[in-house]
Structures are given as C-alpha cells and as structure tokens.
Design a protein that fits this description.
The protein is built from twelve helices and twelve strands. The chain is of the alpha/beta class. Strands 1, 2, 3, 4, 5, 7, 9, 10, 11 and 12 form a ten-stranded mixed beta sheet that branches.
C-alpha cells in the first residue's frame, strides 16, 4: 500500500540543506568524482536556495476555488505554480507548493481536465505510462472510472523502468490512501499492460486520456508524435487528450531525436498541431513563452536527486527545485498539449 508521497517532500526537503557550500561540494565529489564543475555546482546550490526563499515568502498557500482559466498548450513556468489554479489542485492532491516541474505536470493535467468537464461521475479516462503517480487515485475520488496502463514487464526491465521504480507493475501501486478510499479505488480503477507504440484496438470510447512525460521515451521524435495521433482513436468525439513531454526550448537547430529520452522542439509541436488539425481535432493554442520569473531563468544541471547516494539524499533532500534543467547538452522544461477529439 502506498502512503502519502508528499509527507516527506514538504518545505523542509526543498530547502536543500543548510550545510555550507563546501560540505555539499565534498558530498558531490565523493559520489561523482571530478564530473561536477565547482562553478556549475555553486549555481545549482544558489538556484535551490532561491526556491527556498520563494517558498518562505508563501508560507501559507490557501487553495482557490476551481474555475476555468482558458488553459492552452504551453511550457511549465513559475507563474503557473504561483497561480490560483495551481493552489486549487495542490489542495486536491494534498501536496505542498514545490517549485518542481513534475508538480506542474500534475496541476496542468487536472486543470485541463477540469476545464473540459471531465472530473465527474460517468466519465471514463485512460492513462498511458502512469507509473506510480497519484493522479489515478485523485481522479477516482472525483467520479470517473479509469484504465491505467504501463509497459509490459519485459519491456520495463529492458528500458530500466523497474530499476527506477517508476512503473506500475500492478494496479494497487497507483493507490494513495490519503486521496481516495480503497473501496472507491477498487471500483473505479483497472490496470492494463500497454505498449504505447502499439495501442490495443479494444481501448476505445474514453472521454479523456492522458500521459505525463512518457511519450519522449518511445524511441524517437516521430514515434512520440505518432503516439499522440494514435491515442486520439481511444476517445469519443468531443473527448480530450492531455499530454506532457520534454521541450528543448533554447536550441531550434539540434536536439536528441533518437534514444531512451528524446527532446521535442517548437517545430515538432507545430507539426503535431498541424497533423491533428488536419485529422479534424482541435488543439489548444500553442504558447511557447517559458516565463520570465527568477526560477524560469534557473537551469538546473546534473546530478539530480535520483542520482544521489543515500548520504546525499539525507543531506540535500529528496527533491530538487527546478522547472528547467539540462538534459545532455540541451536546456529543457515540460510542455503540455491539450487536444479535443473531432
């Protein structure tokens, strides 16, 4: 049974560590040798400290009532996490404010589904690459019945997902008891093993579908785009799809086009929107503004918490605070796409 994942991720862990910079540098060097540049590490530490100060200024965040904001297809920004609509879903997820792109993905998805009228009984939802996210539990508490999917076990092992504990090997690993009773979860959530590159033909007539930073792991840029197009066949006319993925937002010339994690550029989202529109669907307007607040200008660099030793996690906290980060040679953030089925 999965407990509340946010209890140990609150403000204290985001505050990085109140140790000196020298102590942090020694801890990183002990784990990673000479791979971490001291200047880069100093910038990293300063960025986390900035997030700590911003959180201190918002010590009490009161959830706002849900309302339609006209959400479009867009990248994650600090302004989003500072918004009233973000506090709505932070309250729903019983999650503290954390300036982290994964939290932004959760909130973006829920706002998009709310605006589409999907958070109610009688709706059917389909999740792709769901991992151990709390989303299924929260959605089940709101009324929809859900099918949550992840890779078949042999593909998970081959792709390394089992080592990082991000997949759903059985349905109950998507259960979060602080969000929904087990009886409701049991009645409303089913699990399927699904390869996103080969969506089964019997997954049809859903009111909505979603994926969170999943389709960049399908092998190539083109396979990722093809998944978004193919996933539209799972929806009823008028249904809505919400997907987030990686956005290489500073380099329009080169990117990672093949491999375990690919990085989409502005032109790829524009191409996707053109294809979906030609197929009769409606794409929420594309907005590529990546923000101009302090944390929008902070680009984190490795190592990230998933790479830390246990000693570094205890010292530095489980969660970094970043909306932008380096993936290979490219600055990236999350980008969300909303599509209404024609």
């Amino acid at each position: 049974m999965v407990r509340n994942p946010f209890k140990s991720v609150g403000r204290a862990s985001v505050e990085v560590a109140m140790a000196s910079f020298d102590t942090v540098q020694r801890a990183v060097a002990a784990t990673f040798g000479q791979r971490v540049d001291p200047v880069a590490l100093n910038l990293k530490f300063q960025g986390y400290d900035l997030a700590r100060k911003l959180l201190a200024e918002r010590s009490e965040v009161t959830p706002a009532p849900a309302r339609v904001m006209g959400l479009g297809s867009k990248p994650s920004t600090q302004a989003d996490l500072d918004s009233d609509w973000a506090t709505t879903w932070l309250g729903g997820l019983k999650c503290p404010l954390i300036y982290h792109r994964k939290i932004w993905e959760y909130l973006y998805l829920l706002q998009a589904l709310y605006e589409a009228g999907m958070l109610q009984a009688g709706r059917r939802g389909l999740g792709f690459g769901c991992g151990r996210e709390p989303i299924a539990s929260f959605l089940a508490s709101q009324g929809p019945s859900l099918t949550v999917t992840d890779l078949p076990s042999e593909d998970r092992a081959r792709g390394g997902w089992e080592r990082t504990h991000q997949h759903v090997s059985e349905r109950d690993q998507a259960f979060y008891e602080h969000l929904v009773s087990y009886d409701l979860f049991d009645a409303r959530v089913e699990h399927r093993a699904v390869d996103m590159n080969a969506i089964p033909s019997d997954l049809r007539d859903y009111d909505f579908c979603w994926s969170l930073c999943a389709f960049e792991h399908l092998g190539s840029i083109q396979q990722g785009l093809r998944f978004v197009e193919n996933a539209m066949a799972t929806l009823k006319p008028g249904g809505v799809a919400v997907h987030t993925t990686e956005f290489n937002y500073l380099d329009d010339d080169s990117t990672i086009e093949h491999g375990e994690t690919v990085l989409f550029q502005k032109r790829h989202f524009e191409t996707l929107a053109e294809r979906l529109t030609k197929a009769g669907h409606t794409v929420a307007p594309l907005d590529f503004f990546v923000g101009d607040k302090p944390l929008d200008r902070f680009i984190d660099m490795p190592p990230y918490p998933n790479d830390y030793s246990d000693a570094m996690r205890r010292q530095w906290g489980e969660e970094s605070s970043h909306l932008k980060l380096m993936v290979g040679d490219y600055a990236c953030t999350c980008f969300g796409v909303i599509v209404r089925c024609g």
